[in-house]
Amino acid sequence: MSSVCIEDLQVRMGHVSILENLRLKVDEGEFLVLLGPSGCGKSTLLHSIAGLLDVHDGRIEIAGEDVTWADPKDRSIGMVFQSYALYPTMNVERNMSFGLRINGVPKDEIARRVKRAADILHLGELLQRKPSQLSGGQRQRVAIGRALVREAAVFLFDEPLSNLDAKLRTELRRELKQLHKELRSTMIYVTHDQVEAMTLASRIAVMKDGRIQQIDAPATIYHRPVNMFVAGFLGAPGMNFLEGQLERDHGRVLFRSACATVDVSGYAFQHTAVHGAKTVLGIRPEHITLKALNGAQTGSARISLVEPMGAHLVTWLDAHGQSLAVQSAADQEMPPDQVVGFEIDASKVSLFDAPTQQRL
């Protein structure tokens, strides 16, 4: 196991800055996921660590060694790409052992490493098959096996599951998590899929415009996002946002909007709540409850759409022009166009300063 340390990394493409003064520390044995939309710089960062891109400035250390200008082969990394990149004329065993043979590793050592990787990835019966005889999931396991046989200090994954169908993605995601549990190797994984990030990561680094917005445990990022971008990027459906303002009322702190009033006196403000401050309240769909109209409620709304999701429902509300998503049990379906009450769990809200979009 090895740590990865990045200091003041700058990567430019011509006159365009992709990464600017980026700092990141990945601990030994950690599974770090780089998460963000297309073009945010996550793959550029991964390729810089791998040595596939030249950096303009900064420092990259792997296992305490400065590898900023080292060739990829000298960085003790194993990399798995989005495309399988297998040699079509070679069988699985020779695809997995190709790099070792080129580097002159003894045959008995090659056999040992290939057998170990094949056992871990359940490829033992496929070693003599060609890539054309394999399914997409099997091909990606071979690509992972090719990285494993290097017994590298750090494993890098560049959206390895994005070419697979939903069922295969779920299966391989589980296998990758089990693989990390067995190997306890340092892994850095790039994806734009929040489900992959939440299920795989020890920590998630959410990126936007070449900068890390927040890096923390998945649960912390989900429940305590540092800004509206992070809050809106995670979750399906995403977090609901209500625009309003804060009011002080006889010792209480209230959030008021056109469609709801929420007592946020128990909120853990990082700064003093200012009366009249323009504020955005964020609430996850699972933290809103549908109520009978005129009962105890935060507000009322009309049901505009119901989406059955199998184990649960997503009900979309039109609350005085504000669209709200509500997640509820599958047996709680209500017909569209019905007017209902809704209750917001005040203990689960996130509050953001409207001008800066930063967490209050």
UniProtKB/TrEMBL annotation:
Gene3D superfamilies assigned: 2.40.50.100, Nucleic acid-binding proteins (2.40.50.140), P-loop containing nucleotide triphosphate hydrolases (3.40.50.300)
Assigned keywords, A-Z: ATP-binding, Cell membrane, Membrane, Nucleotide-binding, Transport
Domain (ABC transporter): residue spans on this chain: 4-234
Keyword Cell membrane part of the UniProt annotation: yes
Molecular-function GO term, any one: ATP binding
Keyword GTP-binding: no
Name of this chain's protein: ABC transporter ATP-binding protein
Organism: Caldimonas mangrovi
Lineage of origin: Bacteria, Pseudomonadati, Pseudomonadota, Betaproteobacteria, Burkholderiales
